[in-house]
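Bit of a strange request maybe. I'm writing a small parser for structure token strings and I need a real example to test against, not something I typed by hand. Could someone generate the tokens for this chain?
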Amino acid sequence: MLPEQRTAKGCKLSWRGAALQAEDPVAAWQGLLAARGLSEADPFFSPRLVDLPDPFLMTDMEKAATRLAAAMLADEAIHIFGDFDADGVNGTAILVQALQEAGASVSFSIPHRADDGHGIGVEPVRAAVEAGCRLGVSVDTGTTCFDACDESNRLGFDLIISDHHLPEGNLPAAFALLNPARADCGFADRQLCGTGVAFFLLMAVWKKLGDKGLRPDFDLRVLLDRVAVATVADVMDLVGVNRILVYHGLQRLNSQPSVGMQALMVVAKVKKAVTVETIGFYLAPRINAAGRLQHGEAAMRMLSTFDAEQARKLAEELDTMNKERRIVEAEVFKQCEAKLNGSDVLAVYDESWHAGVVGLAAGRLARKHGKPAAVGFVTPDGAVRVSLRGRAGFHVGDLLNACSAHLEGFGGHAGAGGGTIKAGQWDQFVASFARVIAQQAEHVADHLSLPVDGVLTLPAMHIALAERLARFEPLGKGNPACTWLLKDLQIADRRNLKGGVVRLKLTDGKNWIDGIVFGATAISDAIEPGLTISAVGQLQKDEYRGNGAVQFVVEDVIS
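Reply from user aminoacidic:
Good idea to test on real output. This should exercise your parser:
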């Protein structure tokens, strides 16, 4: 039923679920529902906040929420230990804002990427204690911070870890450790980002205070715009709990965004409805730019401020840093390719590379070569610190665990991670890295497989189907857009637009549809006028033309 030949991008088509063929929109929709095991009235299509799980189901939540609520009632000073990426700064922002709105005395610190690296250092713990704090809460960090937890215990400082990164074999001696990735937890199918964990902590604390008749007069739903941005930015699966959080977070972004998010959308020139794609391409990169090139504190302050003018200035700073980041990233990637010189092992570092872009360069290498990559920089004290990125089928967190003999400190999850190489052990790390990748590769499905939901004809490409498919939003990792195969279409016309975008007129000899190809360079020769092709892609409403028009977003073709 599916063509055996490879696509123009070298992919082999495969069924995402049950084989589906349809010639009209109703049959296509009903067949898709059956293949996905859904019904018209399925709760999947109407995510509700009331369906979020009880936060106290998370291991250590009772202990953490009780301690934090007690601190708030006793007016204890509380310190938040954040991280410098989009997940870490959003999580820091929601904790600081919510606790301050509830009347708590709150301070925060965010490490510098190049000088401090990921994690909670011993010195920040000591500084918090010296400032009079007896309680600290981390967000998006801490699961592998053994020294910081030990120092906290020595100083009588209660440290609550809220994190989602993969634990090592042992857990640190924190006062409480909230992490769905714990072997004895599994809350929300282990899918929450760090900000998501922090949000559930706040839910639990508000419940504790409410039980005493002291629930703060602050609606936690106000924070969902930042929870959504963090979840998408950290590339979490948009199913289950994350689907609910992002669905409602997008609603708030489009109706009542926080002051900082509103300012960021203005400088990013976001004029249409905010979607997962908007977050991934316009908002998250600008938030991340602060921690990559300077300091994540600028992003955190923008995300938590109530001052519109301050938010505007900080958003403009992030926009400027993001432009600089693009230039630096492109140059580092170019140098990575040159230093690798065709090596099968994608592990490389250089003293001149900027700490803030090595992860991005690793991501580009992983996408281009189809396997994990490690790109490093040299810290001021001479250590090599690497950022790792993977791709579907590989698990970076497990990879780091397997290479732990050559690492002083590390952390990560399925798609990304990082660590510091032990002095003089770069070659040993590279050898171990290569070996583990080879082991994981034995269990990785063909990475050039392109899943298809069904084979449709042009009469099925109707606005009625497009509108129904929109109910699957928010789309993203774990909940991809429905992909269709349209067989034997003739390319009647081609128009080259700006930015590598191509417009096509496609016909089966009787019916017509507009096709649009983004990043068309990879398949340009296969979409010339007059050719007959089978097109793989997604059906969408054509918002530009309106009036019930649809378009087919061509992802790949077979000619």
